[in-house]
Amino acid sequence: MLSSSEFIRQSLELHLFFARIMKEHSFFLQVGFTPKDSNYIQQANNLRIEFDRLLADAISLSNGVVSPSVLQSGEVITPFTLKAEMATAYFTGVDIPINLTKSEVGLMGSNALITGNPLLEKRVYMINQRAMGLVTALAQFKTMILSGVISCRIFTSNYPLLIDHILREAKFYFQLIQRLQSRTEINLLKDMYEQESFWNRIMAEHSKFIRGLLDPTENELINTANNFGNEFDKLTIESKEAMDMTIPISKVTDDSLKATIEISKFKSQGTQGLIECKIKSIIIPLLGDHTLREANHYLRLLKIFSKNI
């Protein structure tokens, strides 16, 4: 059973990463609709604001509680997050609360055990419950939008695969919170299979989205993104083979680690290029930073897996 200390720490670390991801999913949906679907724009905006509040509450409890490795990984914020948010707010007119990002810059981590704090434990439990309700609402909204897009009842500038992609991430977040609420201790080997299979597919799809959103004249970047898509497609297959015990998980972890280091560099350069207006595309700067944070999150997990194989 998960200790009180680990329950608090892991819960807050999860929300610092995923609550921001979910609020940005809501934002990407919000700005992708046409004026005709103003009701969907409003629904997405409402969900975004609720995730802003959830993230703010997680931040307020995290100082001196979460691990330094998480804060230093680039999964909570990157050196580009603040500028990406400011540029994106300018382009869209949506009020993005950059104060959350500024407050995260000042967060301090600690490896010390959190002992005897039942009030903090209760507050974290309540945040988890709230997060589960919000994620369920967002997943239902995404499911409805995806169904409407596939049946040609709704138009959005977001790819159907992107909507399916962010729906899977919401479901994955929900499962992880559910596991924490039941105080289930992580089985590292089982978690490796699940995480690598999940995130390799996510990295492959990121590469394909980037490829499809770049200007047709950006040949070099398109080819690089395409190569990453192919590489992570292979790694996704290998992850599933490892689950079936066809190939050793250590090989998949090693290959995934090398590929994720490289795609993180690519996304970092790309996000900087978008902010500095050096890349021709229809990629909103915040989307670049969003995919970079997910790569950094996966990279941190892979380093843990690699040490424990």
From TrEMBL:
A Pfam family the protein falls into: DUF2935
Descriptive protein name: DUF2935 domain-containing protein
